Amino acid sequence: MRKLILASAVLAAATATPVLAQTTTGTVTIDGSVAPRCLFTTSNAVINAGELALSGTGASAGKLDASKLDGQSRTLVGWCNGTASSMSVEALPVVNTTVTSAPPAGFDRVVNYTATATANSVNAADSSIVAGAGSPSTVGLFTGNVTVTLSGSSTPGAGLLIAGAYQGETRVTLAAAN
Amino acid sequence: MKALMITIAAAAAAMVPGSAMAQAASDTSTGQVVVNGNVARLCILGAPSRSTVDLGQMAATSGTRVGRIAVLGDQSVTLPNSFCNFAGSALTVQVTALVSTDASPVQPGFAKAVNYTASASNWALSPTAATSAASASGATPTATSTGATQPAPKIADVNVTLSGFTAPSDALLTAGTYNGLVVVTLGPAVGGGL
Q1: Please, are residues A61 and B44 in contact by the beta-carbon 8 Å criterion?
Q2: I need a surface site. Which of A42, B9, B46, B90 has the fewest CB within 10 A?
């Protein structure tokens, strides 16, 4: 009987040894990153407002026709992949490029306005009266339209507009961040 | 030595992608909406302060000049807030003598026309004036003059003065109703404009 027990113990030892030597694990770690980024895929649009002055012969003839700029809207297209991405707008005034000298009393050669950009249901706005861009708004992750709408057009002195060609610009900047 | 150079080159190449990644982390993109417009050249004359100038009785009714033209004072009309929104404009004045509406031939010693000067001022450096020179019969009643160029856009009250009322040859004036006309035009000067 004692011999049988010893034989069993030896057998157990013989079977345990191969199991301990069978398993080992190697690991390959894969790292990568995606940087925060924003991109306009449609980055330019043009508003041709036409004649900016009121017609007729009344008291307001020759002054700004606000309806020519107010309500004008154009759509840019872009995206941002960072959750803290922001959007800012800088409205540059519409200026007479034909006559560049200072206007005489009673006249204006500048049309100011407010530009509002909307992306991902978030607005960012700026008035051209104050130099520089407006406060940035967080738009986060989005892809799609960035709609720019003009409003509140005016001239500095509510005067007569000097004849000539006028040009201005609204800049929309998407800044990526996480 | 060659081996060292290769090593340095490899290290530099390895650094480049890292720099690019750092720039991408602050990536921005800018879109632009250009706004274009224009303002056409425009001149407007304000509504005259008096659309009709009534001189009343023009002939003296007593004294040594009875029947001849009396001393008629200057008449003023203002065209307020007149403007041109461009450089290079000018006033033109067209004056038509007061002529009797009676078509009958005028008799010797009589006249049925009253000449005068219309002068428009406060636009260019000097006024624009035109003087009618109708004959006793009322022929050739109209004269025209274009003034100096205003070199800048301007808004001002244009003052029109009627003065120097005379009868041809200081003849006796025939009875009747006399009508005259002054036309003031504001527009681009010849060769003027932007």
Answers
A1: yes
A2: B9
Q: Which domain holds residue B151?
A: 45-188
Separation CA A155–CA A103 (nearest Å): 12
User: Using 50, 70 and 90 to split pLDDT, how confident is the model at B23?
Assistant: very low
Q: Is residue B19 part of a domain?
A: no
By the 10 Å C-beta count (0-12 exposed, 13-18 middle, 19+ buried), A147 is classed as middle
Q: What is the pLDDT of residue B44?
A: 96
Q: So what's the pLDDT on residue A22?
A: 81
Distance from CA of A26 to the nearest CA of B (A): 28
CA A100 – CA A168 distance, rounded (Å): 14
Catalogue the E-assigned strands of chain A. Answer: 38-42, 44-51, 73-80, 86-96, 107-108, 110-119, 122-127, 137-138, 142-154, 160-161, 164-175
In chain A, which residues have their Cβ closer than 8 Å to the Cβ of B35?
A: 46-47, 49, 69, 72, 94, 113, 150, 167-170
ipTM of the complex: 0.85
Contact B40 A98 (CB under 8 A): no
The residue-averaged pLDDT of B132-141 equals 97
Identify the residue among B23, B85, B122 best suited for mutation to test binding to A, counting A beta carbons within 10 A and taking the highest: B85
Tokens of B68: 């001849």
Q: Which of B21, B39, B86 sits opposite A52 (nearest CB)?
A: B39
Q: pLDDT tens digit string along A52-96?
A: 999 988 889 999 999 999 999 999 999 999 999 999 999 999 999
* Residue B10: inside a domain: no
Collapsing DSSP states into helix, strand and coil, what is residue B64?
coil
- Which CATH number goes with the domain that contains B142? 2.60.120
The residues near B59 (Cβ < 8 Å, ≥ 6 apart) are B66, B67, B68, B69, B70, B172, B173
Q: For residue B1, is it within any domain?
A: no
Q: Which two structure tokens, joined as six digits, stand for A56?
A: 């007729």
Of A38, A104, A115, the CB nearest to B152: A104
Residues of chain A scoring pLDDT < 50: 1-14
The answer to whether B35 faces chain A, any CB pair under 8 Å, is: yes
Nearest Cα of chain B lies from the Cα of A120 at a distance, in angstroms, of 16
